[in-house]
């Protein structure tokens, strides 16, 4: 499946199908109007007959159109002209792809650029269309188990001044999609295949594929012991599958800004809860407790594909939380790598125990920014549902930049506070902290715990518990927040402020 940016004479182009838009109350877009005139009013005749009304997603496939060489024209309803936005684009593209693929149509021209809702910003228009097409393909392949017949989609760019922006958008979209798809596939694997060792082997493969830019170091339990990562180790000690931490170092060419950006992904390949075992009903979903690690993996693929001029270190914190004779217990007191001690009151609050040691470990890279991505708390799902990822941070500029990337990609995040009042909730009378709060504001007390280990750098924590996967009949990983992180990195590739 290939995408092209080009400019066509729609009437004389020999293709399987041309896709053009029709607005509500029968207003033709300029491409539709152009085809209408050439075909002696064939399209307007059908519209006047009431064959299509322009409601969003409503459509009509035409064959043997007078004076038109293309085999077919797909008229797609675009809804209200004055209310056209990202949401409309998603609906239109989803419907278009379904229609085309149902009929095994192979080569198409999308002549939709006049729908450009971002006021002449063709870049965002193409980005949005391609990401929607790619997501629809993924659905068709994985959920409907159908083949993709489409061979090529060409975008008809009427104004040649927009060519280069469209080309860049295409390039960015494909790289982001590669990362997003890799993250989804990795997250969807069952936990008997995707264990901590598997995660580390996947990481090592990146250094083969991108050998000029990526170096991978794998930290095993012996090295963790030497480093004093006893909180991380405790979480993994009940499992036959030993923990592995992968450190993926990416460095691009022509780096403007030498400072390091660290991305840390929680990689619990299965979280049974440990001795504080979870109820059995939805326990199978805890294979997705490594979605943070998968998102970091995918984001690094994107960076390597685009050769971003940055230094990025991705850490996949692979581990499995199991009950058993050698498992850690409620009541245990653990010495973290930072030297601070933690009283374990619940072995199911394991993510923060793994992450606190990684947050200490990465100090050695003197990072300018650290972002951890974790399916950390059920409480975050209660607070924000499945639409927005929870954001916590100790730096306003970083918040600003993440929010900007979030708005650009529609990969939604929402900031929650880290007021000092919450700190007393994780007090312990026998250790520096306890690993759980008092049952209230659980997403915040978890973030508050992490914040104890992030004083030395600008840090953000993304709690993706509600956004990383979908449950039910179409269950599967969403790949979030790969798009957010990719956009954030694309944006700072042009900055020098960190
Ligand atoms: N991985 C879970 C969080 C989670 C739960 C994500 C449900 C998505 C859906 C995490 O390790 C966990 O178990 N957290 C506990 C913390 C509690 C014991 C303080 C939780 O949220 O219940
Ligand atoms: Mn847990
Ligand atoms: Zn967990």
UniProtKB/TrEMBL annotation:
<dbReference type="GO" id="GO:0006508">
    <property type="term" value="P:proteolysis"/>
</dbReference>
<dbReference type="Pfam" id="PF00883">
    <property type="entry name" value="Peptidase_M17"/>
</dbReference>
<keyword id="KW-0645">Protease</keyword>
<keyword id="KW-0464">Manganese</keyword>
<dbReference type="GO" id="GO:0005737">
    <property type="term" value="C:cytoplasm"/>
</dbReference>
<dbReference type="Pfam" id="PF02789">
    <property type="entry name" value="Peptidase_M17_N"/>
</dbReference>
<feature type="binding site">
    <location>
        <position position="350"/>
    </location>
    <ligand>
        <name>Mn(2+) 1</name>
    </ligand>
</feature>
<keyword id="KW-0963">Cytoplasm</keyword>
<keyword id="KW-0479">Metal-binding</keyword>
<dbReference type="InterPro" id="IPR023042">
    <property type="entry name" value="Peptidase_M17_leu_NH2_pept"/>
</dbReference>
<protein>
    <recommendedName>
        <fullName>Probable cytosol aminopeptidase</fullName>
        <ecNumber>3.4.11.1</ecNumber>
        <ecNumber>3.4.11.10</ecNumber>
    </recommendedName>
</protein>
<dbReference type="InterPro" id="IPR011356">
    <property type="entry name" value="Leucine_aapep/pepB"/>
</dbReference>
<feature type="domain" description="Cytosol aminopeptidase">
    <location>
        <begin position="346"/>
        <end position="353"/>
    </location>
</feature>
<dbReference type="InterPro" id="IPR008283">
    <property type="entry name" value="Peptidase_M17_N"/>
</dbReference>
<feature type="binding site">
    <location>
        <position position="289"/>
    </location>
    <ligand>
        <name>Mn(2+) 2</name>
    </ligand>
</feature>
<feature type="binding site">
    <location>
        <position position="271"/>
    </location>
    <ligand>
        <name>Mn(2+) 2</name>
    </ligand>
</feature>
<dbReference type="InterPro" id="IPR043472">
    <property type="entry name" value="Macro_dom-like"/>
</dbReference>
<keyword id="KW-0378">Hydrolase</keyword>
<dbReference type="InterPro" id="IPR000819">
    <property type="entry name" value="Peptidase_M17_C"/>
</dbReference>
<feature type="binding site">
    <location>
        <position position="266"/>
    </location>
    <ligand>
        <name>Mn(2+) 2</name>
    </ligand>
</feature>
<dbReference type="GO" id="GO:0030145">
    <property type="term" value="F:manganese ion binding"/>
</dbReference>
<comment type="similarity">
    <text>Belongs to the peptidase M17 family.</text>
</comment>
<feature type="binding site">
    <location>
        <position position="348"/>
    </location>
    <ligand>
        <name>Mn(2+) 1</name>
    </ligand>
</feature>
<feature type="active site">
    <location>
        <position position="278"/>
    </location>
</feature>
<feature type="binding site">
    <location>
        <position position="271"/>
    </location>
    <ligand>
        <name>Mn(2+) 1</name>
    </ligand>
</feature>
<keyword id="KW-0031">Aminopeptidase</keyword>
<feature type="binding site">
    <location>
        <position position="350"/>
    </location>
    <ligand>
        <name>Mn(2+) 2</name>
    </ligand>
</feature>
<dbReference type="GO" id="GO:0070006">
    <property type="term" value="F:metalloaminopeptidase activity"/>
</dbReference>
<feature type="active site">
    <location>
        <position position="352"/>
    </location>
</feature>
<comment type="function">
    <text>Presumably involved in the processing and regular turnover of intracellular proteins. Catalyzes the removal of unsubstituted N-terminal amino acids from various peptides.</text>
</comment>
């Amino acid at each position: 499946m290939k995408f092209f940016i080009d400019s066509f004479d729609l009437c004389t182009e020999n293709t399987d199908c041309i896709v053009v838009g029709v607005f509500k109350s029968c207003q033709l877009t300029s491409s539709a109007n152009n085809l209408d005139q050439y075909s002696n009013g064939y399209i307007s005749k059908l519209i006047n007959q009431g064959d299509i009304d322009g409601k969003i997603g409503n459509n009509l496939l035409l064959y043997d159109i007078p004076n038109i060489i293309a085999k077919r024209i797909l008229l797609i309803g675009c809804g209200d002209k004055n209310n056209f936005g990202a949401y409309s684009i998603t609906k239109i593209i989803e419907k278009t792809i379904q229609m085309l693929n149902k009929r095994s149509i192979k080569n198409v021209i999308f002549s939709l650029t006049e729908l450009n809702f971002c006021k002449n910003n063709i870049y965002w228009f193409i980005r949005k269309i391609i990401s929607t097409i790619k997501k629809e393909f993924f659905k068709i392949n994985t959920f409907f188990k159908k083949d993709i017949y489409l061979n090529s989609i060409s975008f008809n760019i009427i104004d040649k001044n927009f060519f280069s922006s469209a080309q860049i958008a295409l390039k960015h979209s494909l790289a982001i999609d590669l990362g997003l798809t890799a993250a989804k596939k990795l997250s969807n694997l069952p936990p008997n295949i995707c264990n901590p060792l598997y995660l580390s082997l996947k990481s090592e493969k990146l250094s083969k594929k991108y050998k000029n830019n990526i170096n991978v170091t794998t930290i095993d339990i012996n090295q963790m012991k030497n480093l004093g990562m006893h909180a991380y180790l405790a979480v993994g000690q009940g499992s036959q599958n030993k923990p592995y931490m992968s450190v993926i170092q990416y460095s691009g060419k022509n780096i403007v800004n030498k400072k390091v950006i660290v991305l840390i992904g929680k990689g619990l390949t299965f979280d049974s809860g440990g001795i504080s075992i979870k109820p059995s009903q939805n326990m199978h979903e805890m294979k997705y407790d490594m979605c943070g690690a998968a998102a970091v993996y995918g984001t690094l693929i994107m960076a390597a594909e685009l050769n971003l001029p940055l230094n990025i270190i991705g850490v996949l914190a692979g581990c499995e939380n199991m009950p058993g004779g050698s498992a850690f217990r409620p009541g245990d007191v653990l010495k973290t790598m930072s030297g601070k001690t933690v009283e374990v009151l619940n072995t199911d609050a394991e993510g923060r125990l793994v992450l606190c040691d990684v947050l200490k470990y990465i100090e050695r890279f003197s990072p300018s920014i650290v972002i951890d991505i974790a399916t950390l708390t059920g409480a975050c799902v209660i607070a924000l549902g499945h639409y927005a990822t929870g954001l916590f941070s100790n730096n306003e500029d970083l918040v600003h930049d993440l929010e900007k990337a979030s708005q650009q990609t529609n990969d939604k995040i929402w900031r929650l506070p880290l007021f000092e009042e919450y700190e007393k909730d994780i007090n312990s009378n026998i250790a520096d902290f306890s690993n759980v709060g008092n049952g209230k504001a659980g997403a915040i007390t978890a973030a508050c715990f992490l914040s104890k280990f992030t004083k030395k750098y600008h840090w953000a924590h993304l709690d993706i518990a509600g956004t990383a996967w979908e449950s039910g009949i179409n269950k599967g990983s969403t790949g979030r927040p790969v798009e957010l992180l990719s956009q954030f990195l694309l944006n700072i590739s042009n900055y020098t402020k960190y």
